[in-house]
Amino acid sequence: PRTTKQQSTQGVELSWTDAKQGDLVFFKTRRSTYHVGIYLGNKQFMHASTSKGVIISRIDNPYWASKFWQVRRVTL
Predict the structure, then answer these.
(1) Where is the signal peptide (predicted)?
(2) How would you write the pLDDT of the chain (76 residues) with one tens digit per residue?
(3) Which domains can be identified in the chain, with CATH numbers?
(4) Contact 29/41 with Cβ under 8 angstroms?
(5) In what order do the strands lie in the sheet with 24-28?
């Protein structure tokens, strides 16, 4: 799937406590706008920022914590 919305339907949804490295973390930044990153462990995720390129952020950062939506595990 190409879009974040399409990606958000793939794999299995998990509870936050079951997240492992490599899982996808999804955020709703607006009502119908989605953002995705790759969970790295230790409450950190890698994602692409429009202004800064690929960066590592903390999920417990107040901004991201307020936008958190779901964790999904995709297996091949």
Answers:
(1) none
(2) 999 999 999 999 999 999 999 999 999 998 888 999 999 999 999 999 999 999 999 999 999 999 999 999 999 8
(3) 4-73 (3.90.1720.10)
(4) no
(5) 12-14, 68-73, 24-28, 34-41, 44-49, 53-58
